[in-house]
Amino acid sequence: MRPVYAVSGGVSKFAKARPDKTFQAVLKEAYDYAIDDLGLDFPTFTALVDGAVASYFSDHFTRQLMAGIMAQDYLGLCPKPGHRVEGGGATGGLCFQEAWKAIASGHMDICLAYGFETMSHVETWKGNEFIALASDVSWDYPVGGFYSGYYAMMVTRHMKEFGTTVEQMANVSVKNHINAYHNPYAQKRNRYTIQDVREAPMVAWPLTRLDICVMSDGAAATILASEAGLEKLRKAGASVADPLVRVSGIGRGTDAMRLSDRPHVDYETFIRDYATGQEKDDDETLSYYKKLWDHGTRYPGVHSFRAGRTAGNMAYKQAGITDPLHELDFVELHDAYTSSEIQTYEDLGLCRYGEGGPFAASGKAHMPGVDYGMKLPEKPICPVNPSGGLIACGHPVGATGLMQAVFAIWQLQGTIKKHFDDTKLQVKDAKRGAIHSHAGTGTYVTVTILEREE
Amino acid sequence: MAKFPKQRPETLGGYIVHGVPFPVETDPDSLAFLKRMTPLQIEQDYSITYLHSYGQDSPWFAAASNKHLLATQEADSGYTYATPRGHDMYSGEETRWIDITDRPAKIHAFTVCFFGSEEFLPETPYVLALIEFEDVNTLFLTRVLGLDPQAASLDWIGMPVEPKFLRNSKLKPTDVYFVPA
Predict the structure, then answer these.
(1) pTM value?
(2) Are A154 and B109 within 8 A, CB to CB?
(3) CATH 3.40.47.10 fits A5-122+217-245, yes or no
(4) Checking phi first, is residue A63 left (phi over 0); if not, alpha (psi -120 to 50) or beta?
C-alpha cells in the first residue's frame, strides 16, 4: 500500500441550527476552507481532485435520500467518482478511512472526504427518536428507544463492576467544555464545574444533560493525497504544509447491534483475543485482570466496547504503537457521553479496564496550561479531546469523525494558532495522534493514527 | 437548591402567514439585498405506516401474548439467547425454542429515563433494564416496574426479578415486563 498524507481540512462552525444555509452550502464552507488552506482556488483544486467520499448518517433528519450526490454536485465534483458511507456515529471515521483506501490502493492520488449533518430540522425529541431507530426496531426501540438510556445502562454496569463514580464522569465534562472554551468552532464554550454537571437536569440516571453531547448542524472536509498527489498539488501552486501529516494506521471493529447479545467471555479468551500486547507482557496487569475475573467480571459485557479495543489494537499494530498512553501525543475520541469517554480510555489501552474512572480524574488526559478550576493530582500525559470533543464541539453525526481528523491534522501541522486564533489548545511538539469514531452502542468503531513526518 | 428553567421550550406550529416580505422592485440593489435575508422555514409532515414482520422471531411474540417467555438455544453447545436469534452466531446453526418463563432472573444493568424519544416521553420516568437469567448466555432489554424512579441505586443491580405479562397483548417486546421478585 502507498503512503497516504492528510494535507488539509476545514470545519464549519458547529451550531444548534443553521437555517441560513442548506446542508450543501454549509458543507461548502468547510470545503472552501480546506482548499484555501492549501493556497489553491476552487477551479484549480476541482481539476486536481480525483474523487470524493461522502459521510452523513441519517436520511430521516433531512428527509432527503441521496443527499450525498446533492453535495457532490454542489461542490462541482460531478462527474468524478463519489459514494456515500454510513455507519451511525462512526460514519465520519469510516469515510476518512475509505478515502485513505482510495489513495493507499492507488485508485486515486487526491481524494476528498467530506461529511455533514443537519439535525435541527426536527425537534429534539423527534431527533432522539430518529437516533434510536439505530437500535433493533423489533426488540430495543419499542421498549423505550433512547440512546442516552442505553449508555446510562452501560455505565451503571461499569460503576457496579469497577466502582466508577459520577464525579469522575463529570470530570470529563468539565475538561472537554473548558478545552472548547478556546476552540472557536465549538458549539458550547462554557466553563462548568463538577457541581454544575451533577446539578444539571437528569436525563437518564446517572447521566445529566452535561454528561451528554448535543445535536448539531455542521460539516467538515479533509483532503488526502498520495506522494504523486502531493506533487500534483505543488505543481499547481499549492502550499502543502510542512511538516507533512501521514496516516500511519487504521483499524476497525464491530459488535452486535443489540447490547443484550454482547458476549461475556472468560479470562483466557479475553487475554488471548482482546488484551493489548502491553497488557499481555505485564505480569502485574495479568494478575490485576485475573482478580477482576475472579470477582465476576466478564468481557465485554455491556460495560466495555470490544469493537473499540479491536479497532485500537489493529491501528496500533499498523502504526507500531505498543504503549499508547506514552506514544500518542493526543487523542480525539468519540465522547458522545462522559461515560463513553471513560469506557474508551480503557478500550484504547490508555489505562486498564476498570481504571477509566480514576484515569479521568487524574489529570493525565487534560491539556497542560489550561485552567480547569480544580487541582488535578497528576500531570497531563496524553490530552484527550483537546478540541472539546463531541460534548462541547457538538455532534453533527456525519461531520464528527472528520472534524476530529481536521483538528488532528492541525495539531500535527502545529497550526492550531492559525486556525483557532489561540495557542492554548496546541499540543506542544505533537508528533502522533489518534482519532476514534464510534457508532451505536459500540457497533462500528474506527481508530486512525496520524503522524507528523520528520 | 432546585434549578428552574430560564428558557421556554421551543415548539413547532403557529400562525399561517400569507404573503412574504419581498422588494417591490427587482432592481440590482434590491436583488443584492436578498443576500441579507433571513431564511424561510416551512413545516413538512411525514407519516408512514409500516407492515413490520417479526419473521423467524414471531413465535416469541405469540408466546408472550400467552404469558410465556421464550429464548432460543443452539442444540449442541447449549448457548442460549434471552433475546431470540434464529441462528447461533458461533456455529451458524439454526437455534431451537426453549421456555424460560420460570428461570431465576435478576437486573444486570439499568437506568431511569427522565427524558426520551418523542414516542416515549409521556411514559417518563421509566426504568429500563437489562435482565440476566440463570444458565442463559445473553441478556434481555425490558422495563422494570415496582421501583421508585426517584430513588435509583446501584443496589438495584443484582436484584431478583420476575416477568409479568400484559393481559391484552400488543405484540411488542413490552408485552413482558419485570417486577421485583
Answers:
(1) 0.96
(2) yes
(3) yes
(4) left
A16 vs B: CB within 8 A: no
Q: Given B44, B81, B172, which is nearest A142 (Cβ)?
A: B172
Residues 6+ apart with CB under 8 A from A211: A169, A170, A173, A197, A200, A203, A337, A338, A339, A391
Q: Which residues in A lie closer than 8 A to residue B172 (C-beta atoms)? A: 142
The grid cell for A243 is 511538516
Residue B178 three-state SS: strand
Q: What is the DSSP letter of A259?
A: G
Of A144, A201, A303, the CB nearest to B116: A144
Asked if B139 lies within 8 A of A138 by C-beta distance, the reply is no
Does the structure show a pLDDT above 80 at B2? no
Answer whether the bond into residue A396 is a cis peptide, omega within 30°: no
Is residue B103 a contact partner of residue B134, using CB atoms and an 8 Å limit? yes
Interface mutation target, options B79, B108, B117, B137, chain A, most CBs of A under 10 Å: B117
Over the stretch A412-449, which tens digit does the pLDDT of each residue have? Answer: 999 999 999 999 999 999 999 999 999 999 999 999 99
- Does A132 contact chain B (CB < 8 Å)? yes
Chain B residue with minimum CA distance to A122: B12
CB B179 within 8 A of CB B147: no
Contact: A153, B44; criterion CB under 8 Å: no
C-alpha R_g of chain A? 21
Of B52, B83, B112, the CB nearest to A261: B83
pLDDT value of residue A91 = 98
Of the residues A138, A198, A207, A303, the best mutation for testing chain B's interface (the one with the most B CB atoms within 10 Å of its CB) is A138
Q: What is the pLDDT of residues A112-132, one digit of tens each?
A: 999 999 999 988 889 999 999
Min mean pLDDT across A292-306, A432-446, B44-58 is at B44-58
* Contact call for residues A399 and A58 (beta carbons, < 8 A): no
Boundaries of every domain in chain A: 5-122+217-245
- Tell me the ipTM for this assembly: 0.96
Q: Tell me the three-class secondary structure of A159-202, residue by residue.
A: HHHHCCCHHHHHHHHHHHHHHHCCCCCCCCCCCCCHHHHHHCCE
Question: Which of A392, A352, A342, A354 has its CA nearest to residue A370?
Answer: A392
Confidence of residue B140 (pLDDT cuts 50, 70, 90): very high
Confidence of residue A302 (pLDDT cuts 50, 70, 90): very high
- State residue A86's pLDDT score: 97
The pLDDT of B97-117, averaged and rounded, is 97
Across the interface, whether the CB atoms of B130 and A132 are under 8 A apart is answered no
Which one of A63, A160, A202 has the shortest CB-CB distance to B114? A202
